[in-house]
User: Fold this.
Amino acid sequence: MTSAETDDTAFLRAAIRAERKRWTEARHAVWEAFLQSQEGLTIPEAVKRVKALGIGQATVYRNVRELLQMGLLQWVHDPNGDHRFIAARMPHGHPVVCQRCKRVIWVDCHGLSAVERLAALETGFTVKGHHLEIFGLCPNCSRLSPDGEPHPGKPKSPRKPRR
Amino acid sequence: MTSAETDDTAFLRAAIRAERKRWTEARHAVWEAFLQSQEGLTIPEAVKRVKALGIGQATVYRNVRELLQMGLLQWVHDPNGDHRFIAARMPHGHPVVCQRCKRVIWVDCHGLSAVERLAALETGFTVKGHHLEIFGLCPNCSRLSPDGEPHPGKPKSPRKPRR
DNA sequence: GTCGTTGCAAAACATTTGCAGGCCT
DNA sequence: AGGCCTGCAAATGTTTTGCAACGAC
Assistant:
């Protein structure tokens, strides 16, 4: 656990240097919180996790903003549209999110650049980037519920769109 | 303008029937507000637009939630992560968003199902769906600013992640 | 020493809820 | 008539801000 930490810590340290920002305990702790979460965190969740370390919520908000800008964090949604943030481990990877257990696996872009090129051709846009999330069931959950929810688009308990 | 409206109104009417929900003026007005916006609306923006018609904000929240569930609305982000909602005109289409003027053009899935299949193979997930947004500059804005922002990922004015 | 960063608490903003009455079907 | 929908206003929850002190460089 401690040896793996070194790696991710170095990742953060390098990004901070590149941005000429400063290394602080709080920054590190926020990053760690996201790293240690398999399924991503909403900001309030992250706040809860680091409050014990004496870190204020404003600091979490400020740091999440920066980590996003540095590309160390990426956002994902559950199908309800709820915003979660997750440590971006693979450069240019895309999250595959299990709708049941919320596990996330990263996959490469694959042929997506082809889609970009095609979109560019069709629309005349100069394509600068994209955001792709894939939803489904992880192998384990898939086994548990062969076809759990009849209507993935119409959950029983209508959830909030949250801005 | 009035003749085109018929089409979209019918779209809404059909969806409402299919869901056994009720046709109301408020529901229609909210839908219209999103239809008439090229670049999508945040909920507070939508509230502002229909307030003049005597529609309360709670109603807007409630209806956006339902339109989302019906698949009539789709969410998009600006690169900062801000949540906007936009009328989904093309079934299974994906928004191509101009980062400058915020114009949105819809494109088809293209080969994306191939990406889904590949992701399924690599991760073992049972893939149920995806969410793709493509960012770039529309032809017009592209001409205006051949390379406007040097760092699309690092805007000068750090914006809020908003949950 | 400088200035980016921080925690705190309050302000600002966004979203949900309870309820009585209205209006689709 | 029945019950989904609505507007209102208050309750809740989320995000930002101001500021003095702290700590990294």
Q: What stands out?
A: Chain B has one domain: 7-142. Residues 9 and 28 of chain B are 8 Å apart (CA to CA). The radius of gyration of chain B is 18 Å. Residues 22-25, 43-44, 57-58, 61-62, 162-163 of chain B lie near DNA strand C (CB under 10 Å from a C1').
